[in-house]
Write a structure and sequence with these properties.
Helices cover 42% and strands 22% of the residues. With 280 residues, it is α+β, with helices and mostly antiparallel strands. Bound molecules: fe (ii) ion (FE2). The site of fe (ii) ion has 7 residues, from helix 4.
Length: 280
């Protein structure tokens, strides 16, 4: 067991490397999320617990793919447009391999973020407080880093089963398979410890509107993943094609971040099965 800035990690691998080595390029992203949330964070009391009839690896793909949001979560985007959010720019960004199977998809945030990116649905009374947070972040981290913290979103995978969705709120999500086609998911909301009640309320509204079992997004995702599982169970196809963007510098809508996960998974599984074969 080792901790990094309040996150506790556990591994049953007797040969596991130290945590900072394990985190590789994901460490910088954890820092970005934590420092963007004032550096003094907490997990808000209350937990989302839900399950899906699908393999856990499908949720990894879903959590870091950069293109399903617009077609799958159109209800949410219609809602955003109806409350005055300008989403016409769409999402642009990059998908990156962070080493050791960790990956991130990062891009401009078309939505408001309680971390220093006000939008009309937050209400006029929240504007001043959010501008103050931004000024504090600039004083501490400079304009460039503050822009990343406030105006970009990221979905971070820490291999194999920790997801941090730093989007319209900050969700920390982990999941465990209980069968090849069954996954139990737990999710929490991360926030600055000393957040103003007004902003905490906006954050939780944002979180619940998009995510969670009653949000505009999570039920869509679960439905889609269970449909994929049924498709795979039908036995009609042997492979899932995630080659998009292999021949160019990966963009947000490419699949480099998914390949990063699968490469590491395959490396571990193949090493294990060849070791087993040798011992037989
Ligand atoms: Fe989704």
């Amino acid at each position: 067991v080792e901790t990094y800035r309040g996150f506790v990690f556990l591994s049953f691998d007797p040969d596991i490397v130290d945590l900072e080595t394990y985190l590789a390029g994901a460490k910088e992203y954890l820092d970005l999320v934590i420092d963007g949330a004032s550096g003094d964070i907490e997990i808000i009391k209350g937990t989302h617990e839900y399950g899906m009839a699908a393999n856990w690896k499908l949720l990894v793909e879903n959590s870091i793919d950069g293109y399903h949001a617009a077609p799958l979560h159109s209800t949410y985007f219609q809602y955003l447009a109806s409350v005055g959010t300008d989403i016409s720019a769409g999402i642009t960004g990059v998908g990156l391999d962070l080493g050791n199977g960790h990956a991130v998809v990062e891009g401009d945030a078309p939505w408001g973020r309680p971390i220093a990116n006000w939008e009309p649905s937050f209400g006029a009374e929240a504007k001043e407080a959010i501008e103050q947070i931004r000024a504090d972040l600039v004083a501490k981290h400079g304009e460039e880093l503050t822009h990343r913290m406030a105006n970009t979103s990221r979905n971070l995978l820490i291999y194999p089963n920790l997801i941090i969705n730093d989007i319209m709120a900050v969700t920390v999500r982990t999941f465990m398979p209980t069968a090849p086609d069954r996954t139990e998911i737990t999710a929490w909301q991360l926030a600055p410890r000393t957040e103003l009640p007004l902003l905490r309320e906006r954050r939780l509204d944002n979180f619940l509107t998009f995510l969670g079992p009653g949000g505009f997004a999570t039920p869509d995702d679960i439905e889609a993943l269970e449909a994929c599982q049924s498709g795979f169970n039908s036995g009609g196809i042997e492979w899932n094609d995630v080659s998009r963007g292999m021949a160019r510098t990966p963009q947000q809508s490419d699949e480099e971040q998914m390949r990063t996960f699968w490469r590491r998974w395959s490396e571990q599984i193949e090493t294990e099965s060849s070791t087993q074969r040798r011992s037989k």
